[in-house]
Amino acid sequence: MPWDKINSKLGATILEQEGDEWEDEDTGWCKMKDDELFHYEPYQLQWNAPHLPHDVNIQGELFTSLAFMDAHCKLQESPGEAGCDLACVVITLMFWSDATHLTTFNNAKLWPVYMYFGNELKYHHCKPSCYLSNHVAYFHKLPDSFKDFACAFTNGKGAGYECTTHCQCELFQAQWKVLLDNKFLEAHQHGIIIHCCDGIKCRFYPQLFTYSADYPEKVLIATIRQLGGCPCPRCLTPTVQLHNLGFNCDRQQCLTLARSDASRSCLVTDACKLIYEKNYGIDSTAVELLLKPESWVPTTNILSDRLSTFGLNILNTLIVDLLHEFELGVWHTLLVHLLRILFAFN
């Protein structure tokens, strides 16, 4: 089987797929159009190992994952739209966002948000010539004029660090409120009818599956405190127990100490009443007593509030950021240090 040739073809665009057909077409490998590589239904990919008593599930694509399988089955079993007999398809949305400097010698910055469809091959995702990356939006940060605006209402004192951080978190969530508007929520619940390239109409249901970002942005998404007493966006493991990372006890704590969205909503609502109705400070003792134990911030989580009605826990969509957490992050430095130790001991 010419695996190298097949792999290069999987990562090629339609314009680049010229020349002879693939070899061994009897095995099922053949040229396909881009729309034919869009997976309308998930499936299980298994390895029948001769030395194992059972098949092994292979995890490599989102459309072969259990999460996609569960979402597909749930959609097919749910009551359909009245008078509609079209096929129902889950559109898996994968988001990335990363604030970056545009140049080396000034402060020009850009904060893009990208989106991919998990129904597409990952070989195509990483190939720019396939044009599968969708620019959703460009987030804004608080402008420099915000300091002057705050000084005008504080007798020249300006806004403190806590107030500025709170306003930045509010601005981030407000921008997601614009993206997750009523039209998106309606499409999420009732679907969108699209005439596909094969001439068949289907009803597509867009659903958010993953969100990849570095830790400072995960803090904004999860509305928690950066490097607080419970720094993890997904669980309440305290900082004093972070040294257990990777042990069995840590895995158990991630399950037993998972963050509760219902608890967050109640605590944040009470904190906001103290701030906006009773004029308490953001870092006042009353607010800290409510939010500090679980490292929440007094900001309404738009992503959670708008999508939790569909059974989505936004905290579970925060996946590992390979670029910052492995290739450029602390793990990369640790790996280099370990290699130097091994080299020193020959």
Question: How would you characterize the overall build of this protein?
Answer:
Helix content is 37%, strand content 13%. A hairpin with an 8-residue loop joins strand 1 (46-47) and strand 2. The chain has helices spanning 3-10, 66-77, 122-125, 145-152, 161-179, 182-190, 215-222, 248-256, 261-276, 285-291, 302-307, 322-327, 330-344, and strands at residues 46-47, 56-57, 87-97, 100-101, 109-110, 112-117, 134-138, 192-195, 201-212. A 5-stranded mixed beta sheet has the order 7-6-3-9-8. A two-stranded antiparallel sheet has the order 1-2. It contains 13 helices and 9 strands. The two termini are 41 Å apart. It is α+β, with helices and mostly antiparallel strands. Helix 9 (261-276) runs antiparallel to helix 10 (285-291). Residues 13-33 have low confidence and may be disordered.
